[in-house]
Every structure is written in structure tokens, then in C-alpha cells.
Write a structure and sequence with these properties.
Layout lengths: L2 E5 L7 H10 L4 E7 L18 E5 L2 E4 L3 H11 L8 E8 L11 H11 L4 E6 L9 H17 L10 E6 L7 E3 L5 E4 L2 E5 L5 E5 L3 E4 L6 H6 L3 E6 L6 H8 L7
Parallel strand pairs: 1-2, 1-5, 2-4, 5-6, 6-7, 8-13
Antiparallel strand pairs: 3-4, 7-13, 9-12, 10-11
Helix pairs in contact: 1-4, 2-3
Length: 253
């Protein structure tokens, strides 16, 4: 039976991670290892300056006092010491991870770390809402993509470090779209306030966003009511720039 590690950045007590784990159990042996508190927008942070602890909460559910990246590393070196899991799935995040948000996302970083360690991985995010979250459609979508990955491996002609980011709109999705990362003009808003002692402090807000039109972007897919499936990879090299710089013979500068 396949083995599946489930993690997230909303914390081990988030409803989303347990809805995800439940949806994946028909596919294999699922273990949840997640941060003991919310670790949203922490990116690909790795804890190096203090020790980490992992606690078993109940059968198949563990918490780590660290980041999603920590959780994946601790799980693979302890619970999966004999053999790595067949799949890592991170989510379900409360809020989209579209476009360049993937660089901030702890959810995406959980899958990224799995990919770096050679394990097929998926990140799952759902549209934010002020109402009660209904994770059924996102969990079902994750299970469908997970089954596809486990069945086919998706390795022929694809980099071993490729992983998948799913973004699921609210309501009943119209289906799946294979997408690219959207692009936007991102303006970060920093709100300066004064505390009771007269000292300044700052809140970083989500900012204002204007998405660039693109028929195949993740943003356009969810806007149209579809589940966005974006293949990502850790390699951030700009190969066009590399080719251009080759012509400049930088080594002769």
C-alpha cells in the first residue's frame, strides 16, 4: 500500500488538513505531521538555531514545533527512516496560493521540500472565505490528482523535482485546468501605528493586486470557476537571461 505524508502551514488542528487526510486514506497509509501552531506565509523557512520536538497527538497524527519544511524533514528522518513516503501532500490551505504567492506560502513550501528530497508532492489551497469552510471539493480534487501521481508517477519526460500546486475556488468547481503562474503588479501595504508607549510598530497587509491578463494563468482558471493545477519546480534559473549573458562573455570582465 502506498505511503502518504500530509502536512500544512495552518497547523495540525486545522480542519483542512484532516479533511485532506481523510480523502487520501482510500489511496494509502496516511500520516499527518504538521506545525503545532499556524505557520502561514513563512515560506521555505528551515529552523536551524534551536532544537525541534515532535509529539504524537494520536494514531497517525504528529505535531512539530516548527515550519512545514521542518515537518517534512523530521518526518522523513524519523517516521519514514526505512523508506521515504510515496507521496507528500500539503494543505488544504485557507486561501489561494496564486502567482508569486507561492514564494511566501508555507503550504507550497511543504510540497517544495518534498520535491527537493525526491518525493512526488502536491500543494492544495482553497479560496479564502469569511463563512465556514467546506473542504469537500478541494479534498476530492487533491485525491484525484494524488491518485494520478501514484498511478503514473508522472516521471517520463518530467523533472523528478516537479511538484503540483492546486488552487480550488469556492462552490462546485467546473473541472480542472492545467495552468501557469499568473503575473500581477503587487503593491505591499505597510500600516504604521503607534503603541501606548509612543513607539512605532508595523502591520504588513496583503496589498493591492492587479493581475495581468493571461488565458492560461492560475488566476484566470479559478476566476472562471475551475481548479487550477500548476506544475512547479525549484529551479529558479532564468535560462533566457543565461543565454543572453553568455554572449557578453562575463568571464572576460
Amino acid at each position: 500500500m502506498p505511503t502518504i505524508l500530509v502536512t500544512n502551514d495552518d497547523g495540525v488542528h486545522s480542519d483542512g488538513i484532516h479533511a485532506l487526510a481523510d480523502a487520501l486514506r482510500p489511496l494509502g497509509d496516511v500520516i499527518v505531521v504538521a506545525p503545532h501552531v499556524e505557520a502561514s506565509a513563512i515560506g521555505h523557512a528551515l529552523t536551524l538555531r534551536r532544537p525541534l520536538r515532535m509529539e504524537r497527538l494520536r494514531e497517525g497524527v504528529y505535531e512539530v514545533d516548527g515550519t512545514p519544511t521542518d515537518c517534512v524533514n523530521v518526518a522523513l528522518t524519523t517516521l519514514y527512516a526505512a523508506a521515504p513516503p510515496d507521496l507528500i501532500v500539503s494543505g488544504i490551505n485557507k486561501g489561494y496560493n496564486l502567482g508569486d504567492d507561492v514564494t511566501y506560502s508555507g503550504t507550497v513550501s511543504g510540497a517544495l521540500e518534498g520535491a527537493l528530497l525526491g518525493v512526488p508532492s502536491i500543494a492544495v489551497s482553497q479560496q479564502r472565505t469569511m463563512e465556514t469552510y467546506d473542504f469537500r471539493h478541494a479534498a476530492a480534487a487533491a485525491a484525484k490528482i494524488a491518485a494520478l501521481v501514484l498511478r503514473s508517477g508522472l516521471r517520463d519526460g518530467i523533472s523528478p523535482q516537479t511538484f503540483f500546486s492546486l488552487n480550488v475556488p469556492s462552490g462546485t468547481p467546473k473541472g480542472f485546468r492545467l495552468t501557469v503562474q499568473g503575473k500581477r503588479n503587487h503593491v505591499t501595504t505597510v500600516d504604521e501605528r503607534i503603541d501606548p508607549r509612543g513607539k512605532a510598530y508595523y502591520w504588513i497587509e496583503e496589498g493591492e493586486n492587479e493581475w495581468e491578463p493571461h488565458d492560461r494563468s492560475d488566476f484566470q482558471a479559478v476566476r472562471d470557476g475551475y481548479i487550477s493545477v500548476t506544475p512547479l519546480q525549484p529551479d529558479m534559473t532564468d535560462y533566457n537571461a543565461l543565454a543572453k549573458l553568455d554572449t557578453l562573455a562575463l568571464e572576460n570582465l
